[in-house]
Specification:
By secondary structure, this protein is α+β, with helices and mostly antiparallel strands. Helices cover about 35% and strands about 20% of the residues. Helix 12 (about 380-385) packs across helix 19 and helix 18 (about 530-540) packs antiparallel against helix 19 (about 545-560). It is globular and about 75 Å long.
Length: about 600
């Protein structure tokens, strides 16, 4: 009987071991693939990749001429210091994986031909294509990936430092493979995809502190183009690399079609626009509807030398708005920011300055199912937002709607009441702070005449309630420096949005980015709830869960009155020279220059 008991105990322990092993194996289901998607399966999972928004019969060759504003003093787009020349990141460098812009967020093998990762996305291993090389002919190795990761984490722009600081360990598993392991408590499902978009730098070229330098050294990357000509602040010209290692990859069919890409620099937009109309370069995107309408009657449009395209996007409109810098004491109070938002007269500006061609932006994800606008708040969103924040949200938005819907006289009186509640009184046509006895004065920093057009109207409106708005027009270099260092009261910015908002939202809105020089958190938002909602959306495994997380974030951003929403375009207004050809099928995001070609 004792022997039987021992046998039973032996089998019991064996059964426990098998169950534990099976449980761990299930939790660690391993995926090896050519691709990865944020939600669902990629369209080209483990099959030949042919992006739908390209023309597979596109011509190769020719010189495509572009124009940029301002100047440049650096060829390093990955650090805060300096102002990098246009196009280097996209033309010279590549990432481990390539994004398909015909899907919300799916990545496919480029430098890394395969990836391996567990279902819980706690780590990822990249397997580098044996043929991958830098433009100087040196093999691209796992050590270059490790070097890139380390340099970007320690010395790169704030978004790189933020993302990569969350990696617990990096292991070079072979000369051509490398594994990244996340922190145990990090449930961000997007982070391994962010790693896939890491630009890869050659260690032999950027070592010994060279990565930290903002100078005009000719960059070396693994991308399809090399820098052929560099004329500081005036022109940069790229030439297609005849020995580009990735030419035979199906993922590159129909892209990178130009032999040369030349970028001239102009000091102001009016000069650039006139140069385009005269045929000096091949592409100009127009943001001003008046300019778009006027262009239709230009000689070179009528004779066919310039073609006009109205391109529809299938992604959110994004947020073009006025960041109200809450780092400034005048803009800390939400009532002040709410009043300023109410005072922006979009209807008058649109009808009188823009022929009614703009649409008013209301939230941060307009024109998509991710937007909270015109969608009743759900129980899921209520739970995500929480009781106290929900009460505040509903009170703020209820008051805002009531103020917004009232007639002009009543509206102005109600707005003055908001200022009164914030410690201001209207005295002799000046809005005076009762504590300091100083007028409320704000500076609106702008860089071009397009912004000045509506800024002047805003100035006149604010004058009616006693606010002094100083419109400060500066050159593009000074504008960029002040913007980057948060040295402004009010500034215009466009925050891009896709159908898969993720970690970039930290770079835009999180508390950790508020004081990071070079981040896009221009309003200086510091909100625990917004931080929580960003964490929630990047951890979401299901599409509905993700959607409601984004909508909840949208509601919190709107109700904080951190940004005065401006307007968005019904189309992308794109003008090109007659020789430019654009594929018939476009990406969800509209046009992509790397798919264009010359006739």
């Amino acid at each position: 009987m004792t022997l039987n008991i021992k046998k039973i105990q032996k089998y019991k322990y064996l059964l426990i071991f098998i169950l534990l092993f099976h449980s761990n194996a299930s939790a660690e289901e391993i995926i090896t693939s050519n691709s990865i998607s944020m939600h669902g399966k990629p369209d080209f999972e483990n099959v030949t990749v042919k992006y739908p928004h390209v023309d597979l019969n596109a011509n190769k060759g020719g010189k495509f001429k572009l124009a940029s504003l301002g100047t440049f003093d650096s060829t390093n787009p990955f650090i805060v210091k300096g102002r990098s020349a246009y196009g280097i990141k996209d033309f010279v460098f590549e990432s481990l994986l390539s994004r398909n812009y015909s899907e919300p967020f799916s990545l496919y093998g480029l430098i890394a031909e395969q990836i391996t990762y567990p279902k819980n996305r706690k780590w990822i291993e990249f397997h580098i294509n044996e043929n991958a090389k830098f433009s100087d002919g040196v093999d691209l190795k796992a050590s270059d990936v490790f070097f890139s990761f380390t340099q970007l984490k320690e010395n790169g722009r704030p978004n790189y430092r933020s993302y990569y600081s969350r990696i617990n360990d990096v292991i070079i598993t072979s000369n051509k493979s490398i594994k990244f392991i996340l922190n145990d408590d990090d449930n961000d499902r997007e982070l391994i995809m962010i790693l896939g978009l890491m630009p890869i730098l050659p260690e032999h070229h950027y070592n010994d502190g060279k990565f930290e330098e903002a100078n005009l050294t000719i960059p070396i990357g693994s991308g399809p183009y090399i820098v052929e000509n560099l004329d500081q602040g005036k022109n940069i010209t790229y030439k297609r690399n005849n020995n580009y290692w990735g030419d035979q990859l199906s993922i590159n069919d129909g892209v990178n079609n130009f032999k040369y890409i030349s970028v001239d620099y102009y000091l102001d937009d009016n000069t650039r626009y006139e140069a385009f109309k005269a045929g000096q370069f091949d592409f100009y995107q127009i943001w001003d509807p008046i300019r778009w309408n006027n262009l239709k009657s230009e000689k070179n449009v009528l004779n066919g030398k310039i073609k006009l395209n109205e391109i529809n996007r299938k992604t959110p409109a994004g947020m073009l708005g006025l960041a109200l810098n809450t780092r400034k004491p005048e803009l800390v109070d939400i009532r002040i920011r709410k009043a300023l938002t109410l005072l922006f007269d979009f209807e008058w500006i649109n009808q009188n300055l823009y022929h009614g061609l703009y649409k008013r932006t209301q939230g941060f994800y307009d024109n998509s199912y991710l937007s909270s606008i015109n969608n009743d708040i759900t129980e899921i969103e209520r739970n995500l937002i929480g009781d106290s924040e929900l009460v505040q949200y509903e009170e703020e938005m209820y008051q805002f709607r009531n103020l917004k819907s009232s007639n002009t006289r009543t509206k102005l009186n109600n707005i003055l009441n908001l200022f009164n509640e914030s410690g201001y009184e209207l005295n002799d046509s000046r809005l005076i702070n009762t504590s300091t006895n100083k007028q409320l004065s704000l500076e609106f920093l702008i860089s071009d005449k397009r912004q000045e057009k509506y800024a002047l109207n805003f100035k006149e409106t604010l004058k009616k309630v006693g606010i002094d708005l100083n419109i400060k027009l500066v050159d593009s270099t000074q504008y960029q420096q002040r913007k980057q260092n948060f040295d402004f009261d009010i500034i215009e910015h466009f925050w891009y949005s896709s159908l898969s908002p993720g970690n970039e939202q930290n770079f835009y809105w999180s508390s950790s980015s508020s004081d990071e020089i070079g981040s896009r958190n221009y309003p200086g938002i510091k909100s625990v709830k917004i931080d929580e909602l960003i964490d929630k959306l990047v951890q979401s495994t299901e599409k509905d869960e993700f959607m409601y997380s984004v909508r909840a974030l949208d509601r919190m951003l709107i109700s904080g009155f951190y940004v005065i929403p401006l307007f968005h375009w019904p189309h992308q207004w794109v003008a090109v020279s007659e020789k430019v050809r654009i594929p018939a099928q476009l990406s969800l995001d509209g046009y992509k220059i790397n798919t264009w070609y010359l006739d």
